Amino acid sequence: MPFRKLEYSWHILEDGEVEKYLEETLDGLSKNEYKVSEYARIIPLMLLLEKVGFSSAYLERAVNYMKANLKLLERCVAIDDLYHPGEDKSINQQTKEILNELNQFIQESCKENAKDTIGKIIGSGNGWANRLLDYLEKNKQDIHRSSGFLVQLDISCLIVKVQESTAKDIYDFRSCLFRVYDNQFMHGVLDEEREIVSQTVDDNWDEEEWTGDKPYTTCPVCGKPISHQNDGGNGFCINCAWEH
Fold first, then answer.
1. Is there a contact between 158 and 122 (Cβ–Cβ < 8 Å)?
2. Quick one: average pLDDT of 18-44?
3. With a threshold of 0.70, does the pTM exceed it?
4. Nearby residues of 137 by Cβ (< 8 Å), 6 or more positions away
5. Mean pLDDT for the chain overall
6. Would you say 241 and 233 are in contact if contact means Cβ atoms under 8 Å apart?
7. Angle, CA 225 vertex, CA 222 and CA 227 arms, to 5°
8. Which of 36, 53, 175, 225 lies in the 20 to 30 Å Cα band around 129?
């Protein structure tokens, strides 16, 4: 990679060679060839080269390419985890500011991606709640970082969806609420929305239409019988599911 050549040898290269490797590094960024973890090394190097006289346009273009690549991420990451400050305090400060900007950009992109994905799942036909539950299980940590999943939705449209759903989908959606808004995550901003949605689900839940409330297993943690009314998912009751 041309970036690594710059990182270790820029100080012994001719200016023309440095600019050549800078352009090649930018070309690699434009093609998303670098790992996100390497961004925290590319940025301070370009700041250093700018400080010794090379154009600031290189860094500006690099950050734009990085943002384009970060928008494609399927999961949220923190790109400053591998950043090791150098001796130059001004470069360290500038690097931290740029990394903070990129981390905020990642969070916003993840929220938008989650909103689009969740919206498509909820807009699908029968079985939508089970597909939503699968998505939430796989992305629970990222969803917690984004203040839950209700914040991504139009609550009034969601309520209509629940009211029009089958008993199976309503049951699975209850599991979505239990799995995300557990004892470890009760986001205060969403208290009102959560209560509205929970009440709507309860109002439209017909236990007899589902299978009745006969226990079909027991919780391996507390030993209580589990029926559809207290099923927290993954084989645990709603009181113990959050621990697992």
1. yes
2. 94
3. no
4. 179, 233
5. 81
6. yes
7. 125
8. 225
